[in-house]
Specification:
The protein is α/β, with parallel strands linked by helices. It contains five helices and 15 strands.
Amino acid sequence: MGKYDALATLLLEAIKEGGDFTKDLSSIPVGISNRHIHLSQADLETLFGTGYQLTKTKDLSQPMQYACKETLTIAGPKGAIEKVRILGPARSESQVEILQADCFKLGITAPVRLSGDLQGTPGITLIGPKGSVFLSKGLLIAQRHIHMNLEDVKHFGVSDGEQVTIQIDGLRGGTYSNVVIRANNTSSLEFHIDMEEANAMHLVSTSRITILK
């Protein structure tokens, strides 16, 4: 089946299922993230008190993920950054995702990693209203990636873990390589990039990108 036949098939399926048949089937929406924190339940309770539960303020694009009212101060050898947002729900391990420029203020060199790949990452101190936690690992700069479900993988002709190059249009646009595909049964289609890299190519939340094959 050719590329245009595949697009036509997807369009017909969307119409039959009552879906949005005007959806752009060739490009991918963009999600831009600032520095943020994921906490384990144990660390959450040390920082905020026994039995504490996070307060959701808004849902994020990925299913069951949400931004919280709670923030923390993160501290390194040379400095600290206040009011870093916590994202929920609680995870099995805590991790802190920062921007490249934050390394200079904190005095720590953080590696570029995918979320959850914490082996060999440096530690960071978290300061909350009821206590503090020193993480022995978990500080990273997020590698740019694309979330997909298994149908999206088939549509775009990629595979989970594959690294692709993406095209960004506009006067400050260009290409980004080393974009990792992260696919599972529940993800929502979205390209994730941090604020620094987004600003470099004038990406905004309404932007869309395409995969170069």
